[in-house]
Design goal:
Layout (H helix, E strand, L loop, with lengths): L1 H9 L3 E4 L3 E2 H13 L7 E4 L2 E2 L2
Parallel strand pairs: 1-3, 2-4
InterPro entries: UbiD-like_N
Protein name: 3-octaprenyl-4-hydroxybenzoate carboxy-lyase-like N-terminal domain-containing protein
Pfam families: UbiD_N
Length: 52
């Protein structure tokens, strides 16, 4: 898995989001927006998900 993240990062295809975000609304919305970008957008890695 780490090798895959390294590869994505090397090709500028990984967006690391360190801000604490709520899983059901905020992360879902950001993933939807990114997926609608041309070519499907970047892979998103949320480092501090919050479940309420």
């Amino acid at each position: 898995m780490r090798d895959f993240f390294k590869l994505l990062k090397k090709h500028n295809e990984l967006e690391i989001i360190d801000t604490p975000l709520e899983v059901d609304l905020e992360i879902a919305h950001l993933a939807y927006i990114e997926a609608k970008k041309p070519n499907g957008g970047k892979a998103l890695l949320f480092t501090q998900p919050i479940r309420k």
